[in-house]
Design goal:
This protein has 7 helices and 9 strands, in the order ββαβαβαβββαββααα. By secondary structure, the protein is α+β, with helices and mostly antiparallel strands. Strands 1-9-3-4-2-7-8 form a 7-stranded mixed β-sheet. Strands 5-6 form a two-stranded antiparallel sheet. 33% of the residues are buried.
Length: 196
Amino acid sequence: MKVLFMFFIPSVCFLPLFANEEGNLKTATFAGGCFWCMEPPFDKTEGVIATRVGYTGGHVDNPTYEQVSAGGTGHAESIQVIYDPSKVTYEELLDIFWHNIDPTVKDKQFCDSGNQYRSAIFYENEEQKRLAEASKEKLMNQFPVIYTEVVPLDKFWLAEEYHQNYYRKNPLRYKFYRYSCGRDRRLRELWESTSF
């Protein structure tokens, strides 16, 4: 569990509409453990317009970080990626997602344990579902068991403001947490030897 020295602010359900000149920006929603760590790889991707972190997949309305991190709400720490499909495809976003998680563990990611840190792909339509399931099936040729869920997106609850772009606002704390959690070490072990 991450230790923070900040005040908690109630979260709200936040789903504003984004649009480019053609009005066709799309969203993709993933859970990969600590949501701080999921923003950087997407933010640096051409065609990604913005990312936001929050809570998805639970049964409590307007959850707070305290509630989710304690477990019991059913939510997973999640990231929503707003992207321009003319510049980056959903399949490419799936590839980024897989290479930034450990799909071989259940209800855990790196040093964070609990259902709130499970890995998941939350699809918004049948096309996303088809592509997500196909990518998972392909990955099963590399690993004997994949615990990452492919489930429908219900509500995405925006996390408190201090969590948004945490890696930019608090780079030293973020780097210390990421290093201490062993995330990059485990990612190298998983992905440097796989052809996926």
